[in-house]
Design a protein that fits this description.
By secondary structure, this protein is mainly α. Helix content is 82%, strand content 0%. The radius of gyration is 22 Å and the shape is globular.
Amino acid sequence: MPSPCHLAAAWPWSIGALVSSLAALLVAGLVHVSSLSRSDGDERTRAVAAALWTRSIARFTAGADAIAAFVLLGLVVLLTAADDASGRFCAWGFAIGALLALVAARVGLASAAAASGRVAEAARSPGDGARRAALGGGAVAALASAGLALLGVCGLWLVAPGIGALFGAAFGASGVAWILRALHEDEAACLSAELFESCVAALVAAMAVAASAVLPLALVGAALVAAIVGRRAPLVFAAAAAGLVALAGSDSAGAWASQAAGSPWDRFKELGGPLAAGLVGAFAVGSAARHAASGSAPLASSALPAILVGAVVLVAHSVGGLHGVALAGLTLAAARVVSRGGELVAPITASAASLAQAARPGDPDDAALAELARSSRSSAAFGRGVSSACAAVTALVLVRVGFGGSPAPALDLRDPDLFVGLLVGAAIPSVAASTFLLQPTARSGAVATAASTTAALRAMIGPAFLAVATPLVVGGLNPGALGGLLFGAITGAFFLAARNESAGPALNVLIKLMGIVAIVATRR
């Protein structure tokens, strides 16, 4: 976390991050307004779309009620337990993070619903209008989610002293993303909340171990600028990241405050190496996940991504230490932003295909729409791979931050408690995954929606209790066992997420939630 003496020097860059976040929100609004000018079909298509929207918003409202209860309960508990200003800032940061995550989900739900009808209508005409409409809907959700994440984190960093408010925001965002996924909300809403949570958690992890918060904030700001530019966004982001590293490497005492002592070249390696590892790792892991999703290499669905993530961590740590690992995780999160919501195209096109089938059954144009939905799954697989890698690396940093704040001894491989912790930790993601697979899907009708929401909430209690209570209990009894528990959970969740399309995103949120709770457990 940056020291107060660097705040004045960092202020211009922090304002720049705020400006980029506001620009992303503005562009998201403009793109959404522009997409509304497209034709949304005939009267029958609009009627079916309205019925689907009514069902989606009813279920989202039911989920929002559960989230409101979660936020209120968490706020009361945190405020009651707070014994200083830092604790109170943590409580209010928790509420802000949860609220912004819910807003991101709501924006994702609205943008996907608006895009699906226009995709269905554009598929009836030759050309790639349907694809561009789907990409526009995904871009709106991605820009809004990442813009809200940067706005919230940067605002809390400028207003609230210390790291407590940021940890609270990450806790609130993870809780909301977990609840939305547990309730089987609309896929676009869930992905929007998870993208927001991924950016917040990666930013907080990097800022917690960095000598200055400027580079993490500027890096996400550069990703937003690249996403706004659109054309050749990865190249724009790579060039911007290289420029930021050059600035940071040449300034050892100002706003950037690199942790490496020595020459500018040493500082450049410390910062540039992890960023390069993160960029290359994002492409490699995403490509491996996309190849595995095709069904041609089922073993690669978990083995190859695991090897690649391990390589990213080793390279980043060898040149930058824990700070380098945190920067690599943040780069993986930034890569999701640069993709402009490519992983959101799949749920949008799938919704458009369902809409078209209900509005005009037997229409030959629906075959083209179905083909577009199938082709978009490769982009979704790429995004899931990058998301799993980002979650594993970010959770690793959060765990290390938790142990760094206490005098816990090094993990002893001769300690049987460590082995027991590994087994218990690996079992928690399996329990959570089975819960998601056994839950009933959403049904239509107000009574059915309420019943399915209640059933989902009841099923969520067990995994949520394990994720929150287990690190607290184990951390109070044996720090060595806590380390085994958390590392077992990270490993188990990563392999399950790589092979499980339905429960994978929720497991990515789960391990970061456990990492944040571990910080509380080791700093009590």
